[in-house]
Amino acid sequence: MGASCLPNGSEERPFVPRANGFVVRFWSCILDELRFPTVSDDAALFRLLLIEDDPTQTLFVADLLSSGQSGLFQITTKSSLAEALPYIRGGKVDVVLLDLNLPDSEGLATCARVHLENADLPIVILTVVSDEAIALKALSYGAQDYLIKGKVDGGSIRRSVQYAIERKGAEREREHLLTSERQARAVAEASGNRSSFLVEASTILSSSLDLEDTLRSVARLSTRVLSDWCIVRLIGDDGHLLPVEAAHRDEAKEVILRKLLAIPTTIQALVDVVQTGRSALFANVENSSFWNDPASAQYVELTKAVGTRSVMVVPMVARGRTTAVLTFGRGDGQRRFDATDLEHAEELARRGAVAIDNARLFREARQAENYYRLLFDENPQPLWLFDEKTYAVLSANDAALEHYGFTREEFIGADMRMLFADEIASRRFEGSLRAAHGERYKVRSKHRKRDGGIIEVEVTSNHLDID
Fold first, then answer.
1. Could you tell me how far CA 29 lies from the centroid of its own chain?
2. Rounded to two decimals, what is the model's pTM?
3. 3-state secondary structure string, the chain?
4. What is the mean pLDDT of the chain?
5. Which residues pair with 316 in a beta bridge?
6. Residues sharing a CB contact under 8 Å with residue 274, sequence separation 6 or more, in sequence order
7. Is the Cβ–Cβ distance between 126 and 99 less than 8 Å?
8. Distance, CA of 41 to CA of 71 (rounded, Å)
9. Are 358 and 352 in contact (CB under 8 A)?
């Protein structure tokens, strides 16, 4: 739970901090409105199975899901586990929103049965049982999230369901990768260094969540076994190819290769791979379209200068999106690339694409975290959080400390009711807080600064649940 304090004339904006184990209210004066991501109108339709035996709850939840983003979910409702099982087994739904206590099944056994029937189906639990131990155990039984009835709104449920679908997809992708890795291990003796190389590549690629480091690793890895040289180009938001890394076994030739990397290229072979998402193999590059593109004469000349006789161009695709393009080359004295080499290159690209996708998600999460933190720490208006039950101050920005004249050591952990000018103002605030029942409210009051000065403020209370 949270509350916010705004000086006269300020406009309240929502802010969502995270703090383990606290239910807090916060005092805020935020300049810019924060919005959660929404799904576009052309988003794919998700088939949702709502298993709930209370007709009132069924109608209420269905209404929450359909409000705001009409058409996002195709909802099927069932009031018992027995009625729901044919849909679960038959792959007729994309996600299950599950009440644990049903007429024919109770507790975690309900979640376990659904998971047993279809382990690939994401499950989001929506129940009245507010028990952390049960929630944690539910995750081990196959649930992706655990929501408490009465403490979530339509937006929270929609986000939880969408994230559950995405996480389950990521789990399937990881399982696929693990399966591929086990298969690679099984044939390592027959495939020699190249199969062992793919196993090592998975370890190296998963060791960093930095996007540029991941791409550089892909280039360097390929020159160990697969090719003489490799160029990595990232696909920008406008669809253009952006230079990232060039690696060659020969340091002298790598200097030439880096010049090639710096050239903006429109060579048709690369453009085709970007547009189609399909690899291209030029086993004999001299007699191929790769070297017969008049629009890229300089690019071709530099490619020849590093002694190239065979080329592969491979897209890096994650979740249906081409994020980068790899160009592999072999020079004079080396065997020309063949279909087996292309398979290994595509497997390396696929693993690299998953690593890049993880790096992108990590970077976006860090940017979002920094953005929200910036709004709190660097906000010029006083801002702090306090525990609604104990009134203890949990966090405060520099503006709050400066405005009220306290040191951080004095303010953090103190009872925030000390700020009220008198007992009447303090009790009026407590009464308003209780009467709000989690809803937002505003009330004018007087605060006392550390030096005894009295200031008038407008208090705005907002309810926040902090995990």
1. 28
2. 0.41
3. CEEEEECCCCCCCCCCCCCCCCCEEEECCCCCCCCCCCCCCCCCCEEEEEECCCHHHHHHHHHHHHCCCCCCEEEEEECCHHHHHHHHHCCCCCEEEECCCECCECCHHHHHHHHHHCCCCCEEEEECCCCHHHHHHHHHCCEEEEEECCCCCHHHHHHHHHHHHHHHHHHHHHHHHHHHHHHHHHCHHHHCHHHHHHHHHHHHHCCCCCHHHHHHHHHHHHHHHCCCEEEEEEECCCCCEEEEEEEECCHHHHHHHHHHHHCCCCCHHHHHHHHHCCCEEECCHHHCHHHCCHHHHHHHHHHHHCCEEEEEEEEEEECCEEEEEEEEEEECCCCCCCHHHHHHHHHHHHHHHHHHHHHHHHHHHHHHHHHHHHHHHCCCCCCEEEECCCCEEEEECHHHHHHHCCCHHHHCCCEHHHHECCHHHHHHHHHHHHHHCCCCEEEEEEEECCCCCEEEEEEEEEECCCC
4. 78
5. 324
6. 235, 239, 241, 315, 322, 325
7. yes
8. 8
9. no
User: Exposed, middle or buried by CB within 10 Å (0-12, 13-18, 19+), for 98?
Assistant: buried
Paired residues of 242 in beta bridges? 234
pLDDT of amino acid 380: 82
- How wide is the angle at C-alpha 400 spanned by C-alphas 399 and 406, nearest 5°? 115
**Residue 189 pLDDT:** 52
- Residue 104: pLDDT band with limits 50, 70, 90: very high
Q: Which two tokens stand for residue 233?
A: 């180009």
Which pLDDT band holds residue 17 (cuts at 50, 70, 90)? very low
